[in-house]
Amino acid sequence: MFKDFETTKTHLTELAEIINKFKSEAVQLRLVELIFAGAGLAQGAAAPRQEIDTPAKAMKSKRKARTKPSPKADDGASTKKRTSSGNGAVATLVKIFEEGYFKQPRSIGDICAHCEINLARRIKPNEISGKLGRMVRDRQLSRAKNSDNQYVYTNA
Questions:
Q1: What range defines the domain where residue 122 resides?
Q2: CB of 111 within 8 A of CB of 123?
Q3: pLDDT tens-digit readout, 57-103
Q4: Does 151 lie in the same domain as 95?
Q5: What percentage of the chain carries pLDDT values higher than 70?
Q6: Which residues have CB under 8 Å from 111's CB, separation 6+?
Q7: Does the pTM exceed 0.70?
């Protein structure tokens, strides 16, 4: 098996200290495979490298892949525009827009205060700023700066 077992044992002891410094067992195993393959000691050294099953890989392979539901031909759901559920900050913003709240110029602080006082819905400015920007780009609203250098939004 080994020509000089004691020398090989000494070499392996020295290598063990270096290999054990790596925390990943997969890395340790791969290093040992490379060392034995380089020395011609590994069985099937010429065989292509197989993937090493680590615990993380084993867990990933057990998970089911999410699949998209197949669109139904007669349903027409794939061409239908998504509508909001009516519970979030954006849905509240759309609701007050449809009610005509933006007939007068309103700052984002005014919008949040209106929602909190009149609709009992606490909204943070960052929750609706994106939707306000989209509404400006879609020309549903227009915006300008007021005397306090803040943006105010009105109907376009």
A1: 89-155
A2: yes
A3: 555 555 666 676 655 555 555 566 666 566 899 999 999 999 999 99
A4: yes
A5: 68
A6: 93, 96, 101, 123, 128, 153
A7: no
In a domain, 65, yes or no: no
Check which CATH number belongs to the domain holding 99 and give it: 1.10.10.10
pLDDT score for 3: 72
Q: What is the pLDDT of residues 128-154, one digit of tens each?
A: 999 999 999 999 999 999 999 999 999
Residue 141, both tokens: 């609203």
Chain-centroid distance of CA 5 in Å reads 53
Strand order in the sheet with 141-145: 106-107, 151-155, 141-145
Number of domains in the chain: 2
Q: Which pair of structure tokens corresponds to residue 130? A: 């994106």
What Å distances lie between residue 96 and 85, 93, 112, CA to CA? 15, 5, 11
Q: Which parts of 39-84 are beta strand (E)?
A: none
